[in-house]
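Thread: quick sanity check before group meeting

JM: Hey all, I'm pulling together slides for Thursday and realized we never actually wrote out the predicted structure for the chain we discussed last week. Dropping the sequence here so it's in one place. If anyone has concerns about the input, flag it before I start.
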Amino acid sequence: MPHLEGAPPFTGSSHFDQHGRVRGTLQLHGEHIAVDCMAVRDRSWGRRPELIGRRGRLSYTFGSSGPDDGFLAFCVAPGRDPLGDSETLTSGYVFRGGAVRRLEHLDRQVLRHPVHGGVDRVELDGADTDGRRFRAIGEARSRMFLPGNSVCINTLLCWDVDGMEAWGEDQDVWPAVSFADRTRALR
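JM (edit): ok, ran it. Output follows.
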């Protein structure tokens, strides 16, 4: 589904996300591993100058329980609490029973690991454009930190989406200096 035009973080470009099923094999050190899972493909077009020297933080989170059910949300930190663990929706959707609807509003709350500051739990609460409530709780299963000018914490999550198990990912992106400040505050 296309990202809302002009919504952060793609204020000067276009962005598209697509849920789908991935099947195949992976070869690792001579071992063949079967792959059969749900995933998200994303694509952007145009300049993204807001990603250079980013001052705020954002998240990109998604999950799927099957080919007809999933969700995706971009959220940003509010200006009043840029180092807190609460974010609000800029754009996203819910895919239920094969029908896709935009998310009308969504709050994202994060519980962080007390030592390294990585995501331990994500809670999403909102509603779609039909007024249907959406609630998802994700528990971290693994994570990796990708450092640079910004820090991106990629976390594999097992989600409970309105009572259904789903799997997905959370990308928690911070300016490096802000993440260091936040991690020190946790300790």
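AS: nice. The chain has a mean pLDDT of 82. The CA atoms of residues 28 and 72 lie 30 Å apart.
JM: adding both to the slides.
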